[in-house]
Amino acid sequence: MANVTIRNLNKKYDGGFHAVKDVNLEVRDKEFMVLVGPSGCGKTTTLRMVAGLEEITSGEILIGTRVINELPPMDRDIAMVFQNYALYPHKSVHQNMAFGLQMRKYPKDEIEKRVREAAEILGIGPLLERKPRQLSGGQRQRVAVGRAIVRHPQVFLFDEPLSNLDAMLRVQMRVELKRLHERLETTAIYVTHDQVEAMTLGDRVVVMKDGWVQQVGEPLELYGKPSNKFVAGFIGSPAMNFVDVTISDSGGVLWADAEGLRLKVPPQMAGRVRAHGGKRVTLGMRPEALHLVDGSDQPEYSFATAVDVLEPLGNEILVNFRAGGAPMVARVDPGVRVKAHQSIRVALDPERVHFFDEKSGAAI
User: Residue 348: which of 307, 289, 300 has the closest Cα?
Assistant: First the structure.
């Protein structure tokens, strides 16, 4: 297997649209890297340039030490799994999986060996003689993955392969893909718009927006230490709560003030936030960093509000309310007894506070 190096990669279309902007990435050998972001962020275009399906405007792509910019897709030693499966409807599962190897003139016994091995790995051995129309969505996706596996490529590329599956099957296929990657130990680049998919699958995750890479890191690093407000809001479900506040200094103690909201800036963050004294910044709080006040909470980290909407999910309750003029949600224990429109006090965990520059969005 091999690492994939992307250097100063750009893609501009006729008409001046700049889809991918100076992307620099190092995908390590045997790593499962996920590109995630909203529609139009450039993630699929980046993947297609690695695959050779999209012309590169500028920059370099290397697999191992070999620059592949000018190589046709079939010579790049990659295999791609698409969102729409792209199976031949008139061919059997076996024929679909074998077709790429037949085109490359592999010996029949080698083709048979590879198809049988891939079918065993994916649990589709009994389906080899069926046609795609006789398969469920999940089975078709396994066939598409199997067609890639038989190639024994240096790099696997996945373009939103689970998007067409229902929610329960997506969860199942996520687990199977994770298990498959650990078994094959193959370098993989995976594109998705689903941040839960990205967090559960990726060894590292690349968050993109408007063609730019916003942050690269391990899933929990992105969740706990987002580099900017966009990453903080995109990673996590429900999303991080944001409220615009003004930083004030009272006797050397910093406070974050908004309409009907006054919270102390935690001491461990005061050094970084002090430079923003008198200015507006954005305060960020994860839903699980908020809870209903109990006897152990410090008053300077709590505020009064009223329940707007309750979302009981069985293992937790999402409590929606407003504070500082902004909508917020707290994730609380299902044993908490609270009703819609009830007055409550909400406390903040001071160890889990984030501040962002109001203009640039960069983490403070």
Answer: 289
Q: Burial level of 105, CB count in 10 A (0-12/13-18/19+)? A: exposed
Q: Which residue is listed with tokens 């909407």?
A: 309
DSSP 145-205: HHHHHTT--SEEEEESTTTTS-HHHHHHHHHHHHHHHHHHT-EEEEEES-HHHHHHH-SEE
Kind of pairing, strands 78-81 and 155-159?
Answer: parallel
Nearest-angstrom CA–CA distance, 62 and 6? 7
pLDDT band for 1, please (50, 70, 90 cuts).
low
For the four alpha carbons of 355, 357, 363 and 364, in that order, the dihedral sign comes to negative
In sequence order, which residues have a C-beta less than 8 Å from that of residue 237 and are 6 or more positions away? 195, 196
Taking only the tens place, the pLDDT of each residue in 54-100 is 999 999 999 999 999 999 998 999 999 988 888 999 999 999 999 99
Query: Alpha-carbon distance 351 to 355, whole Å?
Result: 12
| Residue pair 11/56 in contact by the 8 Å Cβ criterion | yes
